[in-house]
Amino acid sequence: MAAQKVSEWRKLPVSLTELCIETTLRCGQSFRWRKINEQWHCVLQGRLISLRQDPTHLHYKVTWPTTTPTKHEDPQNFGAEDDTPSLLHSYFALSRSLTTLYAQWSLSDANFARRAPAFTGIRILNQDAWETLISFICSSNNNISRISQMVLKLCTHYGPYVATVEGEAFHDFPGPEALAGEGVEAHLRELGFGYRAKYIAETAGCVAQVYGEKWLLRLRDPGVPALGATTEEAGASVKKEEGAEEKKKPVDGDSKVDLDEDPPTYKKAHAALLALPGVGPKVSDCVCLMGLGWGESVPIDTHVWQIAQRDYNFGGKGGAKTKTLNKTMYEAVGDHFREIWGPQAGWAQSVLFTANLKSFSEQAAVVKKEGVVKVEEETQEETVTTAEAVTKPEKKKGVVVKVEKSEEIVATTSAVKSRKRKTVAAEVLPKSEPDAAVQTTTTRTLRSSKRIKSQV
What we know:
Layout (H helix, E strand, L loop, with lengths): L4 E2 L3 E4 L7 H4 L9 E3 L2 E6 L2 E7 L3 E8 L19 H8 L6 H11 L1 H6 L13 H9 L6 H15 L2 E5 L2 E4 L4 H4 L4 H7 L5 H16 L2 H5 L12 H6 L29 H8 L7 H10 L11 H11 L14 H15 L3 H11 L10 E4 L2 E6 L4 E4 H6 L9 E3 L19 E6 L8 H4 L1 E4 L2 H8 L1
Parallel strand pairs: 12-13
Antiparallel strand pairs: 1-6, 2-6, 3-4, 4-5, 5-6, 7-8, 9-10, 10-11, 13-14
């Protein structure tokens, strides 16, 4: 095997508050990034990109395939002709100020303001629309780990090989033609895709043989160029290729609007995607947000539905009355979030979605506001405040909050990590009344009588 062509490490200036790859690459947007030896690796547009990060810079290096160079690189002169910096800038959508967006969302939503400080740097990736479409068809009734395994199988069996890192082979994502071939559905079933195999094969056939690959580009937000596209390429993507074979025009299923003649909108793009096999409202919204650039798109899965019920009072008090997320409720939740978060509501949603994942449960946000300290304990999916702990101690479990001398100090005992909790205490020490802690301390003892008896 010929030696791989690998660039030196280079860096882009970006702070952790603007981009945190440790969170962004793990929160269910892209399923192809693999972490090996503290570095993240993924194939993007024909090259293997490796990433690491420090507080002020994103470091990257590129491994090129040993085949004929593409228009994206010059293996003999890394740097001048290498478009990887602009590709990463596009992929991570670095033109948007995340700090500004977080500030806007925090002003308009108190719940976001409480949770966001522990989850900074979460950006919506500007991914390839085709990859996003197939990846989220795989997400139906699935979790991030299993989706990642399915996507890996798709790349390994149908995508072109690019490079190897630490003994692990990396392939690019397969195109529509590769997944539309004869026998693909049966093979995917053998690989464990279940009913999703049929949807993947049929959708690949629709895109490859009926609509054409350029169809997805015509669904994009015109203000957000496709991944790696130049200004000229972005403008040309909405035009028919001269001399190309005439294909069936994609049509918005609800309004019957020809997408070749009318400018795309989020609603039109969402409706058009629903015509594809295996694509429901949530999958369509995921593709709109992460693959087509529609920031207003708000995908609502079980996690977001839990958030809507728990934190925004959807579905009745405490979410107890309405357990099923029907079409009407789905649209109502999305519209509510768009109203409070604005045109980039999907970006804000991704922050709360990440905060709700068990894999990020150790990240607790601590915010001090007007003398009240709020502790978010994601493992219990509840928020405890000192005021609530004092007045309603019977509803809180296993969190000890102590505030002293107006400092932003929160001590959470190790009992939080155990379900066998015995004591909850919240102490508030006013500056002017240092002895008031005795009066404002609320203590609940569980099974204390048994302990006392055993000591006697």
